[in-house]
Design goal:
By secondary structure, the protein is an all-beta fold. The protein is 0% helix and 51% strand.
Length: 78
């Protein structure tokens, strides 16, 4: 299930309705390094700026209460 768009993106990724269930987002570069971490109240995250990230492939991991998680790959382009 895809929950972030557009993909690829050069400025911001929008989080679909699935984000209502989550309280944290972490972005990892595909090499495994964490590059950004965001905490928020459930239902308040709708977009994540990615314009400061270098061009490349990343993994977005959403985390929620009771161990709920979701992950999706995305690409930052020019």
């Amino acid at each position: 299930m895809s929950f972030c768009s557009p993909n690829p993106s050069s400025d911001v990724i929008h989080i679909q309705d699935l984000a209502k269930q989550f309280t944290a987002a972490t972005i990892f570069h595909v090499n495994g390094h964490m590059v950004q971490q965001i905490t928020f109240r459930p239902g308040t995250l709708h977009a994540i700026p990615v314009d400061r990230l270098p061009q490349g492939s990343y993994i977005l991991r959403l985390e929620g209460l009771r161990g709920l998680t979701a992950t999706q790959a995305f690409v930052v382009s020019e």
